[in-house]
Amino acid sequence: MHQWAPLAAAALLANGAVAQFNMLRFACSQLVVDRVDPLVNPGLRYTPHLHQIVGGNSFNLTMTPVEYDLAERSTCTSCSFNQDKSNYWTAVMFFKAKNGTYHRVPQVGNGGPQGKLINNGGLDVYYIPSGKTTAFKPGFRMLAGNAANTDDSKVSSGNICHRCWTSTSDTPFVGGAPCSGSDTVAIPQETRCKMIRQTIIFPTCWDGKNLDTPDHKSHVAYGQGAGATGGGACPSTHPVKLPQVMYEVMWDVSKFSDQSIWPDSGDALMYSMNLGGSAAHGDYVFGWEGDTLQRAMDSGCNLNNACPAAGLTAQTPEQYNACTIKQQAPEEVDGWLKAMPMGDVALKA
Hints:
Layout: H1 6-15, E1 24-28, E2 30-34, E3 51-55, H2 70-73, E4 87-91, E5 93-96, E6 102-104, E7 107-108, E8 123-128, E9 141-145, E10 160-165, E11 195-201, E12 205-206, E13 220-221, E14 240-241, E15 244-252, E16 269-271, E17 281-285, H3 292-299, H4 317-321, E18 336-337
Antiparallel strand pairs: 1-8, 2-3, 3-4, 4-17, 5-6, 5-16, 6-18, 7-15, 8-15, 9-17, 10-11, 11-15, 12-13, 12-14
């Protein structure tokens, strides 16, 4: 595995020279869009806000670590690698129209210097190593971001950000490294944006003891520096370097580009907490089979390619797109809705 310095890594990401270092980058299609959250609200149907979930099909209302073994219980995964039965989820973006109705913003596949990934909704997942990297252990979970935050200044723009694409094509790639340049914590509120890329970067330093903590954050910490750099040096309180997990979601806002349907005041685009980009967050529950992730990090496995040295096999888009589950909190989530799904079951407008 190549060891790469943060600044060099950022430059490589910006210039698309990915061949000079290795990282996993793969597609995860939509498993389900559902109002459940086994990390923050275990056992609760109709949680306070809606999520889009990807990964292993054992995703459930309650997944108690370590006894709930995702890799063992899942029979398929909506992610590229057969061996990854982890679950990844984020809040859902909504468009609020002038007439007060809401519409879920669809997600599309993401391109970029590393090539196009094919997603049926969902998101792209990265595992970026830096130096000696220790893979997550069974039962490991964590949370990035704060679903209740309303203050952009309380968010590191190097870890959670949004980028405006003025075309429905992401080729050629727009801008530099993730969460750099003109990227913003806030969701861009402009009709010129045809797609909005959301980036969520997780902490890379672990205390080496706790698989989770009550706040789902205290057992991990960000290293020195920010951005998609592999994480930087770790503090003494959290000395174990983890792979850097990063989510990228491409929200297709092109169907809402008619200014006449935008509200006369207030934001038109928001997350399912009825809040803006400062409340963006991501949930992670580890579920790789055996030691495949550690072997992938040690063997220099790259992008979404099969990697025999680590025992990684890649599915076709048709295979991972076919892995879906039914809502466990059944309600309408598509089309125009009378209200955002918060509290009562959502109804069509």
